[in-house]
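Students often ask what a 'structure token' actually looks like in practice. Rather than answer in the abstract, let us consider Glycogen debranching enzyme GlgX, a protein of 705 residues. Its sequence is given first.
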Amino acid sequence: MQRVDLFPTHEYKGLKLRTGRPYPFGATVMGNAVNFSVYSRYATDCTLVLFHNHEPEPFVEIPFQKEFKMGNVFSMMVFDLDFENIEYGYRMDGPWNPKEGHRFDKTKILMDPYAKLIAGRDVWGAQPDWDNVYQYRARVVCDDFDWEDDLPLETPVNELVIYEMHVRNFTCGADANVKHPGTFAGIAEKIPYLKELGVNCVELMPIHEFDEFENSKPSPVDGHMLYNVWGYSNVGFFAPKAAYASTGRFGMQVDELKNLIKQLHANGIEVILDVVFNHTAEGNENGPYISYRGIDNKTYYMLTPEGYYFNFSGCGNTLNCNNPNVRDMIVESLRYWVTDYHVDGFRFDLAAILGRDQNGCPMPNPPLLESLAHDPILGKTKLIAEAWDAGGLYQVGAFPSWGRWAEWNGKYRDSIRRFLKGDEHVLGDVKERIAGSADLYASQNRGIKASVNFITAHDGFTLMDLVSYNGKHNEANGEDNRDGEDNNNSWNCGWEGECEDAGINYLRHKQIKNAISLLMVSQGIPMILSGDEMGNTQYGNNNAYCQDNEIGWLDWTNLQKNEDIYNYFRKIIRFRQAHKALRFEYHFGHCDYRNLGYPDFSWHGVKAWRPDTGYNNLTAAFMLNGRYAETDGVPDDFIYVAMNMHWDMHGFELPQLPEGMAWHVFANTEMAAPDDICEPGEECMIENQQEILVGPRSIMILVGK
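Now compare that with the structural description of the same chain:
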């Protein structure tokens, strides 16, 4: 017996129709019909436009009857469509009054904001047909992927080691040796590599559909094409980028991405998506009509009193995130990625924007951020904020959290960089960062896990470039080297760029090992930039957003060239995972509050138990008491880290261990490979248990056991 509400009641040009269901928005298969539902507060009329796949002209345009509208939602069921072979869009009619925020134009065919599959730009870098009346084409998803028993992994956040990567750049470079370079499938081929490295979470730079041809142009330097490679300019928030799939030309990008996530999960690796809810690819008032502008401009965007676009994103427009309907769309998007793609978490680009009201003012309790913090479906999903925006709002340590949000700790990056290059006046701040940034997060009871620590990320220098360049070299971007950050806190070790000097190159490798050492022994969630583990360079370009070439791609030949760096990364990541004392959840008491004989965490100087406090000091040491970090009743080891960023060698007096224990050396960045680091658990006991000598610009890590 069929349900009555699945029978047609109307007919238009041979197609059978009936009143649709207003919710859910988007295109949903219901029995032998497709339900099309779209919201617009200010539109007066709506027309559904249907194409056969890849055809230049629609085969039918169906006006929504008056009885097909409920409130501000147009909804209609269309029966007996071959839904896997159609593309659909909308024409919206309504007022044209830019000063009031309305930009309706019924000559435009508009993409569904809730489209879960987007066609039209299926092959990376393929020149679009600019005369095509409908560039980005919404399609209906056939949801038949077999997840078997897969679910989000729910790895405790303090156990994560995050690896930030770009889908295309990761496997397009020399000697990547994958069958499908630059795709989700290409990453899947590299899972054994990720597992050997030891990371247990990948953070994918934007994978939502975007336009690589946005602002594309030939480089004035050498003529190669500059693209929007990074993709921080969304076309749709529900659809994966077709050109990131080897099967995208066949409309199979959904399954290819799901298969990647399923394989990563099977290998214990979580997936975090970098999401961009602060603006869209439609730009300012001179930008294209793609979707939101033509469907409901006044609802979707923050507008000035004159009807122009606020630009807190630096990209031409700003999404009106705290409008209730836009807020619902964002929540629905995140729920969809968690339920249908089993995604483990999200990093929110320029997240401070998400806390602005429709006039751009920061809100004390932003409803969107609160909704995400308390959403039942997202209840165990990681939420990470880039806690600043392009409008000058900087909220590191003050991002509204409700106990749920973590933050990219930009203060960690800046302090550690300055310390590594030997700046004075920074050690006090470095101590806060290494111990979990209690000055930022303890007063809010957010815990150490609120801090995502990083030294490099996609924005800025790679780790190799951080120690090879004093200034940015972005000439290839075609903006006269004006773009990109000027304050890099970098040091070239005595020569600008690549060189043949063995001493300089040895120092650079040592500085890279110093950097990853500090990152892995700091309290908080460490994040490393893809390629840093093999000494990847972007040749001094600190804003490679447009470089679809050797500047932006990983060069896998570096694995052999910089084998010592890779081995150091691999071993120190394992060291972190082997020691719970490096992964506390809550800030230290800096005292022996459980009467275990030693404080949970203690600072030292070149003399044990006597930390140096001089403003120009470049030496310090700390000790972790593993007895405060038990696993199933078994205490961890003591860990001692001596840091000497001075240009001379210094002796460090060691704290005395409990009877029956001795200090063993795990890592010494002054030593040449392979003696610079051990396999965890195979540390060698040192002969002198009273003092160690730490070389210039070096770090030693000891284990007391």
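One point worth highlighting: The domain at 4-139 is CATH 2.60.40.10 (Immunoglobulin-like). Ask yourself how you might have guessed this from the sequence alone, and why that guess would often be unreliable.
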